[in-house]
């Protein structure tokens, strides 16, 4: 039986939103990411997994412009289709992007970090929560929308003088913040300092903040770290809602295999900066190379022996 086009099993090949092509990142003598290629499907929840130090956060830092890759290309596509012609033109013309209305291609490795959320529609959360702890929960979500408000003010005193365009943009920003506070069950904490929230609530606020920028791709760095089982289940629901009701694709780094296997359409596995597996959650779960990497054993045969031993 052939797999139907655009089924979850094919989306990252058929309709890629993001393509990471031959990405290499070196720090002096350390090769943190080594000639890595993978794709994120439009509408997929994709997990990037691997043992500690495998290079996962380095990949996120390259995607979001925190690091300039040593080599390789990172392509984000808006609108359906591979956009091959636009991509070739942008690439050979030394451009950062090529846009036509709502569709276009973005070469993330050429873009400064502040342009990536706004132009390319890629937002992220961090492994170590980075909120403004002294600001209220609501203020954190308004700060995230600062760019849009500055544009509405015309980069002038328009904001302070309360021009109608600015006031409309401000109302929209507040409405969006309230919406995401509802989605993340934080509305009743809107006026509390973000630093007073529990750890799990701060993680949800980080996601709300990223979603307030209206991303096409949401990158979550270990969103389940430190959560209890109930919070983890809520997180799974939230990630699914983000994908199903907002059409935002999700790329997550996660060590919690329960979360990864339950919600991911597609899993990419790194070990020592190299891709060792790439496929559906089911395929990857049973891949001896992956099991060997996680168990820290030398070869696949040894991993198979251990797995058979556990199963019998
Ligand atoms: N700025 C840096 N300078 C030097 N080495 C770095 C830097 N950032 C990462 N590394 C190295 O690159 C390798 C990959 O690190 P990275 O943090 O990307 O792994 P990871 O898979 O995210 O690990 P973890 O699951 O523990 O968060 C490690 O050897 C790390 O020490």
Offer a few descriptive terms:
amino-acid transport, ATP hydrolysis activity, globular, transport, alpha/beta, Rossmann fold, 23% strand, nucleotide-binding, 312 residues
Bound molecules: adenosine-5'-triphosphate
What's the domain count? 2
Biggest sheet strand line-up: 7-8-9-3-10-11
- The CATH homologous superfamily name of the largest domain equals P-loop containing nucleotide triphosphate hydrolases
How many DSSP H or I helices?
14
What is the CATH fold-level name of the largest domain? Rossmann fold
Strand element count: 11
CATH class of the largest domain: Alpha Beta
Largest sheet: 6 strands, mixed
Approximate helicity band:
40-55%
CATH architecture of the largest domain: 3-Layer(aba) Sandwich
What's the Cα radius of gyration?
Answer: 20 Å
3D structure, described in words:
- Belongs to the ABC transporter superfamily.
- The structure is a single chain.
- It is globular, with a radius of gyration of 20 Å.
- With 312 residues, it is α/β, with parallel strands linked by helices.
- The chain folds into two domains: 9-121 and 218-301, 3-Layer(aba) Sandwich (Rossmann fold), CATH 3.40.50; 133-214, no CATH class.
- The protein has a six-stranded mixed β-sheet with strand order 7-8-9-3-10-11, with helices on both faces. A five-stranded antiparallel β-sheet has the order 2-1-4-6-5, with helices on both faces.
- Helices cover 41% and strands 23% of the residues.
- The structure holds adenosine-5'-triphosphate (ATP).
- Adenosine-5'-triphosphate binds at residues 27, 30, 32, 50, 52-58.
């Amino acid at each position: 039986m052939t797999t139907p086009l655009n089924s979850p099993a094919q989306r990252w090949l058929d309709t890629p939103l993001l393509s990471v092509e031959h990405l290499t990142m070196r720090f002096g003598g350390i090769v943190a990411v080594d000639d890595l290629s993978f794709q994120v499907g439009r509408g997929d929840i994709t997990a990037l997994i691997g043992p500690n130090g495998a290079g996962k956060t380095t990949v996120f830092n390259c995607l979001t412009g925190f690091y300039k890759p040593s080599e390789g290309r990172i392509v984000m596509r808006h609108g359906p289709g591979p956009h091959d012609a636009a991509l070739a033109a942008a690439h050979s013309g030394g451009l950062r992007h090529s846009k036509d209305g709502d569709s276009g291609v973005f070469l993330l490795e050429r873009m400064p970090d502040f342009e990536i959320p706004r132009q390319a529609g890629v937002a992220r959360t961090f492994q170590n929560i980075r909120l403004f702890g002294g600001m209220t929960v609501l203020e954190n979500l308004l700060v995230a929308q600062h760019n849009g408000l500055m544009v509405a003010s015309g980069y002038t005193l328009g904001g302070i003088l309360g021009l109608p365009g600015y006031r409309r943009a401000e109302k929209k920003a507040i409405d969006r913040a309230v919406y995401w506070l509802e989605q993340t069950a934080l509305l009743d904490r809107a006026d509390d300092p973000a630093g007073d929230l529990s750890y799990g609530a701060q993680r949800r606020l980080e996601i709300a903040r990223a979603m307030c920028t209206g991303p096409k791709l949401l990158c979550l760095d270990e969103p389940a770290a430190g959560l209890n089982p109930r919070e983890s289940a809520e997180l799974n629901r939230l990630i699914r809602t983000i994908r199903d009701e907002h059409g935002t694709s999700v790329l997550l780094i996660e060590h919690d295999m329960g979360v990864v296997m339950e919600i991911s359409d597609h899993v990419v596995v790194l070990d020592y900066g190299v891709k060792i597996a790439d496929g559906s959650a089911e395929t990857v779960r049973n891949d001896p190379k992956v099991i060997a990497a996680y168990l820290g054993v030398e070869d696949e045969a040894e991993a198979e022996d251990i797995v058979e031993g556990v199963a019998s």
